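Technical annex B. To support the medicinal chemistry partners, we prepared a structural model of the target in complex with tryptophan, based solely on the information shown next.
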Amino acid sequence: MQTTGKDIGGGAGSDGQFKTKLGVIAATLGSAVGLGSIWRFPAEAQQNGGGAFLLIYLACVVVLGIPVMLAEMSLGRAGGADAVGSYRNLAPKSRWWLAGALGVVSSYLIISFYMVVAGWTLQYLWDSITGALYSGTAGESMTAMEHTFHDRMEHYICSDIDPLISTGFMILLNIGVLVMGVQKGIERMSNILMPLLFALLLIFCIYAMTLPGAAQGLEFFFKPDFSKITWGVAANALGQTFFSLSLGIGILITYASYYPKSTKLVSTSVTVSLLTTLVAVMMGIIIFPTVFSFNLDLSSLRGTTLVFVTLPEVFAQMPGAQWWSILFFTLLLVAALTSTISISEVSILFVQKRFKRSRLAATLIMMCPLFVISSICSLSFGSLDGIRLFGLNIFNFLDTFTNNWVLPVCALCTVVFAGWFMPHDALRNQITNGGSISTRLYPAIRFFIRWVAPVLILLILAGSI
Ligand code: TRP
């Protein structure tokens, strides 16, 4: 099948399609908004000069994020299949499908460790509900409490059994949604959870803004200190763009194959990118005033500390600690769940299409091995800590390797293919829905996909070397 001409693909029919416009946005946004925007963003902003980082990140979203997203979406809807199948359909007899295969493999590597962190959030939610997280901290000084939460986190993450149980639960939760299929599973879950996520964020934002000393935090976050802008900061912002917009591993190729013909790719990609950025900005509005108001150390935003030590410490000082804690870990869990679902879907649709398996079989074939592979990642903080690759434990190696190398390479293939090799007219037809919407922006979009995005991605790769 070669999809050219007026046939813009989409509308795979039956269950292989999102039903409503809201569903398209909610599911795509659900994939993007994850630990990347909620947890990684504030830490990156803190380390890279606050407002300066925010500005560069915004620029990266516009010049790189949206074009790459459009390239992936066009490929997916035109190809009408999983990441490998879409390349095959659009360029039969070529080896471009290998780029899709790289996406499927890397999605699987990413999900294997992402699931572990998603499991941690589940455990922290549970411990907030039972109150175990806060037991014994009443009356402790800030320093003592920080030690308590720190020890608790380390003890938990580095132990063997407990994280395995929560990771297992998280995998089961994913299976539960994924077997229900595209409309009844992914779309319905996203339609319910994404509004909930925004409501929770809003509650926290309002609370944070009313804290004494909030202005100082907002100033740090919004006032750019241009002297902090370096190549390193720019490279980090580019990396954050990929991570937070779910680019580079075929997620959007997969999801766009479920988009109806009527979905407008440009407005969808702009909406999703802006809303994801809004979430990241809201997290900044929550975290920085809190840090200043509670006189916390800015460096405590880094790594696992922010969500598993610093925030519990803050909650413990607030009236109704347990409730705030439940709300926050629900927020984090929602963000993680909708993202894990999308990362898993890449390989599930691949198996479903390539090996002609039922939804149930494909889901089980891809998700069950995760019980073992994610366990290995989880144990790499505990019993398997001794196994080192380039000096990193298995978890950190996978994290670094996929983010620094595989994502940029995969994304580079996507934009080069969409800009230079996809059948003539196919890109235009995707962007303009077969000519039924304005083509004015098309030349600029094509220019960004053909030139700007590849050059920027090569720069990131050069930076990594
Ligand atoms: N975008 C999601 C997040 O921010 C999921 C995600 C994490 C992701 N890492 C990724 C998607 C890397 C693609 C590539 O959490």
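Notes passed to the chemistry partners:
The pocket of tryptophan is lined by residues 32, 34-37, 110, 114, 243-244, 246, 248-249, 251, 339, 343, 407 (CB under 6 Å).
Residues 88 and 95 are 8 Å apart (CA to CA).
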